[in-house]
């Protein structure tokens, strides 16, 4: 019994917990020594290390920046389209959407009167959250005559009839007394291209400027500014176009709402215009615009990812090539390490660690470069600034992955070097 007790109490027998701690300490010391050796070697080849780190930083920065810029552009497009979608409702005869021709519209409607009766703007504007409303209708069967320019080059100009409130509803800038559009006078407003094709120079004083439509003289009352749907149009009073067409089944009512009220107004406004037959009217769809916005965002992001992935692939090849050259130049050093007892894994670890350090540092730098590029592009384009934390945080991880992938083959090649052949190669 005494002998067994002496063995169990022997100071040479170590506790298992202490052995685990000792193994972890040895591993920690080995890792520190390995990192220290790699850093010394990288410092000795500083220029090569700088170039590899820069290549990783630029590729990671290009990937993150391209995705970030795409996200910013997509969000800007999204906000612009959403702003228009959520504040603009277009009301048209449902037959125009289902059939697409005025003839079929007439067959369906019969002699039921006007779809958009006189005074419909005032009625619609009394609805809560509607800021402005105006009608528009194209003139049927009319062509400009008595203009040599038009006859010679076959220029086709659109003739439209609108009410004065139409410009308030659409936000189109126009000069001149727009209230004349609510009369049946022979006056007209010209878009920029229409005025140019008619040989009329836009001016603040329109007295004495006129042209003819089918033998009727129209005085120019003003000009429509900017690039919009009326840039090549001659705009007449809505009443004159209605008197020519005799029907308004090709007309549209443009409604501008308070921000965010577009979807609700789109459901309500047909009942406001035609309480007895709201089914004859259709409104623009907000859902379709949302789908377009989502598609644009996805396509821009996908494009940015492909560009960045291509650049990362090139970087992996460049870094791998540089490290293969380093392996070739350090054959004798690798032979000495193997001769002194270093295992294949220890030799390969030197290059794995070097690739990991280069990739990690390059990833951090790449994320910083990407943030700077995104800020510059957003500010110069007057966009709202949006930084995706996920992609920016992925920069160091992607850099580490690039470094490890690039060092995989060089590490394998270094581990396969035979000590005796390596020493004699020198």
Structurally, the number of domains stands at 2
Order of helices and strands: HHHEHHHEHEHEEHEEEHEHEHHHHH
Q: Give the overall average pLDDT.
A: 77
Please bin the fraction of helical residues: 55-70%
Uncertain spans: 1-10, 97-112, 143-153
Helix/strand structural class: alpha+beta
Oligomeric organization of the protein chains: single chain
Task: Describe the structure in your own words.
With 426 residues, the chain is α+β, with helices and mostly antiparallel strands. It folds into two domains: 33-79 and 292-425, no CATH class; 88-257, no CATH class. The chain is built from 16 helices and ten strands. α2 (16-44) crosses α14, α13 (331-339) packs across α16 and α14 (344-380) runs antiparallel to α15 (389-415).
Q: Which key phrases capture this entry?
A:
16 helices; disordered N terminus; alpha+beta; 426 residues; single chain
Layout of SSEs?
Elements: H1 2-8, H2 16-44, H3 46-85, E1 88-93, H4 94-98, H5 102-109, H6 120-125, E2 130-138, H7 148-153, E3 158-162, H8 165-170, E4 174-175, E5 187-190, H9 192-197, E6 210-213, E7 216-224, E8 233-237, H10 238-245, E9 252-257, H11 262-273, E10 281-283, H12 286-329, H13 331-339, H14 344-380, H15 389-415, H16 419-425
Parallel strand pairs: 3-8, 5-7
Antiparallel strand pairs: 1-9, 1-10, 2-3, 2-9, 4-7, 5-8, 6-7
Helix pairs in contact: 2-14, 3-12, 3-14, 3-15, 12-15, 13-16, 14-15
């Amino acid at each position: 019994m005494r002998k067994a007790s002496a063995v169990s109490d022997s100071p040479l027998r170590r506790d298992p917990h202490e052995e685990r701690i000792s193994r972890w300490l040895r591993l920690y010391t080995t890792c520190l020594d390995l990192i220290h050796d790699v850093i010394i070697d990288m410092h000795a080849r500083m220029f090569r290390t700088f170039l590899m780190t820069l290549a990783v930083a630029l590729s990671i920065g290009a990937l993150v920046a391209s995705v970030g810029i795409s996200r910013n552009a997509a969000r800007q497009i999204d906000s612009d389209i959403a702003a228009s979608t959520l504040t603009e409702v277009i009301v048209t005869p449902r037959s125009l959407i289902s059939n697409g021709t005025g003839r079929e519209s007439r067959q369906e409607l019969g002699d039921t009167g006007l779809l958009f009766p006189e005074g419909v703007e005032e009625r619609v504007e009394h609805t809560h959250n509607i800021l402005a409303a105006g009608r528009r209708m194209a003139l049927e069967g009319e062509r400009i005559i008595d203009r040599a320019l038009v006859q010679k080059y076959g220029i086709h100009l659109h003739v439209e009839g609108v009410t004065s409130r139409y410009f308030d509803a659409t936000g189109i800038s126009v000069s001149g007394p727009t209230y004349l559009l609510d009369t049946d006078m022979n006056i007209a407003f010209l878009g920029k291209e229409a005025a140019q094709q008619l040989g009329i120079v836009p001016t603040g004083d329109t007295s004495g400027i006129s042209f003819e439509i089918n033998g009727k003289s129209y005085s120019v009352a003003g000009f429509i500014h900017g690039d919009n749907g009326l840039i090549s149009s001659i705009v007449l009073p809505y009443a004159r176009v209605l008197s020519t067409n005799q029907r308004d089944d090709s007309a549209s009512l443009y409604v501008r709402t308070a921000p965010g009220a577009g979807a609700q107004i789109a459901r309500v406004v047909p009942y406001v215009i035609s309480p007895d037959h709201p089914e004859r009217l259709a409104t623009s769809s907000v859902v379709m615009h949302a789908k377009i916005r989502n598609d644009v965002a996805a396509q821009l992001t996908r494009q940015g990812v492909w560009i960045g992935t291509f650049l990362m692939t090139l970087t992996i090849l460049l870094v791998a090539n540089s490290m293969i050259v380093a392996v070739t130049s350090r054959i004798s050093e690798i032979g000495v390490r193997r001769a002194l007892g270093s295992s294949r894994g220890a030799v390969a670890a030197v290059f794995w660690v070097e690739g990991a350090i280069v990739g990690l540092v390059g990833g951090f730098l790449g994320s910083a470069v990407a943030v700077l590029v995104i800020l510059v592009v957003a500010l110069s384009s007057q966009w709202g600034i949006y930084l995706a934390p996920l992609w920016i945080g992925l920069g160091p991880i992607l850099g580490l992955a690039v470094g490890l992938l690039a060092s995989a083959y060089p590490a394998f090649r270094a581990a396969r070097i035979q000590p005796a052949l390596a020493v004699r190669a020198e």
